[in-house]
Design brief:
The chain is mainly beta. Helix content is 13%, strand content 66%.
């Protein structure tokens, strides 16, 4: 968890370094409309199953499509891949689709937001002894900050996922968006 916190801090500092450029280029009225995006970052997985103990700090990614009808509210659909968690000869691949609402603070130049939604996930565990697939729908929540320059935007975000049989499932990421004005 400390390593994930460090990654989030570094990504936040990078976003803060972009603030002066954003102040010069940002749209005063905010940015609304349909958008697409992608993000890459560090995924942390800790499975607490009685059958397997799998863990990972690896590369995760997500693709997003959203609609921001108001400066303070957006809806977003994401595909997220957490990478591979391992434990001895066993490993697990987890991915999912999220549907979330994003609430933005009404602050000029910077988008600071919270996320709350649901993830429909799938974990495939590969083992020479007992492979299995597990699926479910669980809570996703997070915080982020972003900026935009015309249609192009950048964001830093930390998300947690309350998946069954896990103690930690998270993604700290740096991403880009493109809004169709």
């Amino acid at each position: 968890m400390a390593k994930n916190g460090l990654v989030f801090l570094v990504l936040t500092l990078i976003a803060a370094a972009l603030l002066p450029a954003g102040a010069a280029l940002a749209d005063e009225a905010g940015l609304t409309g349909f958008y697409v995006g992608g993000a890459l970052g560090e995924s942390t997985e800790r499975f607490d199953s009685t059958l397997y103990r799998l863990r990972a700090d690896t590369v995760g990614y997500q693709f997003a499509a959203g609609w921001r009808p108001l400066d303070v509210l957006a809806g977003e659909v994401n595909y997220v891949n957490f990478g591979r968690a391992q434990g001895g000869v066993n490993y697990a691949d987890t991915d999912g689709v999220t549907v979330s609402a994003l609430g933005f603070l009404p602050i000029p130049l910077v988008d600071i937001y919270g996320r709350l939604g649901v993830i429909d996930w799938r974990t495939d565990v590969t083992s020479p002894f007992f492979p299995y697939r597990r699926t479910g729908s669980d809570l996703v929540y997070g915080v982020g900050a972003g900026m935009h320059w015309g249609s192009f935007g950048a964001r830093v975000e930390y998300q947690r996922y309350d998946l069954s049989d896990t103690s930690v499932m998270s993604l700290a990421s740096l991403g880009v968006t493109w809004t169709f004005l």
